[in-house]
Amino acid sequence: MAYKVFVYGSRKAFPAEGLAVGTRLPFDIFVNEGNVFSKEYSEGHAFGPADRIELLRRGVNEVYVDARDALALDAYLHRTSEEVPANLEDPVTVREYIEHKQQYYQIDRTFLVQGKRVEFGIYRLSDLRLVPLVEPVDNGFGTIPGGLGSCRGDIVIRNEDIPLYQKYLDVVIAEMASAAPTQEEKQKIQAVAIKEKSKTIVKDLLEDPRSGENIKKGMRVVSDLTECILGNPNVLYDLIALNSYDQYTYTHSVNVAVLSTGIGVSCGMGKDVIQDLGVGALLHDVGKSAIPPEILNKPGRLNEREYEVMKSHVLEGIKTIESNDAVPKESRSVILQHHERISGTGYPNRLSGPQISTFGRICAIADCYDAMTTNRPYKDAGTPFQALMQMKVEKANYDVEILDNFIRMLGRTQTARVKAAG
Ligand SMILES: [Fe+2]
Questions:
Q1: pTM score, whole prediction
Q2: What is the pLDDT of residue 413?
Q3: Ligand 1: distance of its center to the CA of 150 in Å?
Q4: Where are the alpha helices (DSSP H) in 161-302?
Q5: Per-residue pLDDT tens over the stretch 263-296
Q6: CATH of the domain at 191
Q7: Position 104 confidence tier, pLDDT thresholds 50, 70, 90
Q8: Does residue 173 belong to any structural domain of this protein?
Q9: Is residue 171, in this structure, part of any structural domain at all?
Q10: How far does the centroid of ligand 1 lie from the alpha carbon of residue 143, in Å?
Q11: Ligand 1 centre and the CA of 340: distance in Å?
Q12: 313 Cα: distance to centroid of ligand 1 (angstroms)
């Protein structure tokens, strides 16, 4: 859809309906109420359904960006499916992409502060291509450029640079937390930091899932995340607001653990039960470590044979952890049942209705929601609203009570965000 842009002095106006739910805003947005311009959303804000409702409620039909953001506005309003790469069939590009997915590690752009010096290279993985953004110069340092908050694709670093990134992260998190204006803001930074740090632990865990030490670290991740969410349920929004351009099993696993934990909290489960649920959710795709990378990271849709191989990750996962006593018995049902469907159409055992445990039902919802809201090279992500609508249409597959609870939970976290911003 085309939106007309008007110029008002140093600002450009466009219809508020041009703000698409589920997108991350690449600029600050201003509103004009009673002839007073005020900033409504900051650059990087994930525009959600509650934001749309709030603008409608206040009768805000027109919004503004700074004139300096004209190019970014043009790109934002003309997002099209042309951005989906046309090189999915090129064997060399596909092979390189699969290698890049194995050799590079996705990082959270929240912590990339413009102008900071870094001792590691930073790259953008987008449309199957790897583009250098920061390459350390002769003295070993590079400087983070601006605009990384909204650029297309995922920001990645080399696997071997993860320890340098962790060091950088510790410094930036400490600086951000000490500059936070309120305790609430500090809690949010800490929650997102725990999530970002937990990704490397989960990456190690997925690479060596039989290591008792890795499992123990994974359990600590869940306990830290649960503490955060129980301490301040509003942090949940910050933990689930980030979308990846592409899927990475470690990022997906942490997302599913966060969402499942959130559902557990909203269902009123006790801390110990939530811990078992979260551990299961964190490990739900552990069997993917047994799937060949050319299938796991294939940038196109899987054919029938590949899909059958992919489905084997469920039983591979159970095999991987069965001899590990550290994994609670209750957590195992999550691994085994997260692809089962209430309608009996899931796998591996075509269980239905009451045969599926509460943990299995919760993880099925969290898993599908995260998958639907994550981009893939062959398919742009659905917005949170679209994902929930699709799950509502396919409600025969899910536990309807848990799904409604989940929708309410997402609504509450969005509302909390709007209130905090106001
Ligand atoms: Fe799975």
A1: 0.77
A2: 66
A3: 29
A4: 162-179, 183-207, 212-231, 235-240, 249-266, 271-282, 293-296
A5: 999 899 999 999 999 999 999 999 999 999 999 9
A6: 1.10.3210.10
A7: very high
A8: no
A9: no
A10: 38
A11: 10
A12: 7
Say how many Å lie between the CA of residue 393 and the centre of ligand 1: 21
Answer yes or no: do 46 and 110 share one domain: no
Q: Which residue has the tokens 């499916």?
A: 81
341 Cα to the center of ligand 1, angstroms:
13
Residue 240 CA to residue 255 CA, distance in Å, equals: 7
pLDDT higher at 116 or 81: 116
Q: How many angstroms does the Cα of residue 417 sit away from the middle of ligand 1?
A: 30
Task: Tell me if 214 is assigned to some domain.
Answer: yes
Do residues 310 and 235 both lie within one domain?
yes
DSSP state of 86: S
Q: How confident is the model at residue 5 (pLDDT cuts 50, 70, 90)?
A: low
Compute, in angstroms, the gap from residue 249 CA to the centroid of ligand 1. 10
pLDDT, tens digit, for every residue of 192-207? Answer: 898 998 999 999 999 9
The HSE-up count of residue 90 (CA atoms within 13 Å, CB side) is: 10
Say if CB 120 and CB 143 are below 8 A apart.
Answer: no
Same domain, 375 and 396: yes
Secondary structure percentages of the chain, helix, strand, coil, to 5: 55, 10, 35
Is there a domain that residue 347 lies in? yes
Residues in the chain: 422
What radius of gyration, in Å, describes the C-alpha atoms of the chain?
22
Q: 18-32, 79-93, 303-317: which range is least confident on average?
A: 79-93
Q: How far is the CA of 252 from the centre of ligand 1 (A)?
A: 10
Domain of 230 in residue numbering reads as 181-421
Instruction: Give 42 Cα–ligand 1 centroid separation in angstroms.
Output: 35
112-157 pLDDT tens trace: 988 888 999 999 888 788 888 888 776 777 888 877 776 778 899 9
pLDDT of amino acid 9: 65
> Above pLDDT 90, what percent of the chain?
45
SS3 call for 223: helix
332 CA from centroid of ligand 1 (Å): 13
The reply to whether 11 and 38 lie within a common domain is yes
Picking from 6, 36, 34, 41, the residue whose alpha carbon sits closest to that of residue 20 is: 41
Rounded to the nearest angstrom, the distance between the alpha carbon of 53 and the centre of ligand 1 is 34
Residue 409 C-alpha to ligand 1 middle, in angstroms? Answer: 23
Closest CA to 352 of 371, 337, 333, 336: 337
Contacts of 202 (CB under 8 A, 6+ apart): 218, 221, 250, 253, 254, 282
Closest CA to 99 of 123, 138, 128, 69: 128
Q: How far is the CA of 360 from the centre of ligand 1 (A)?
A: 11
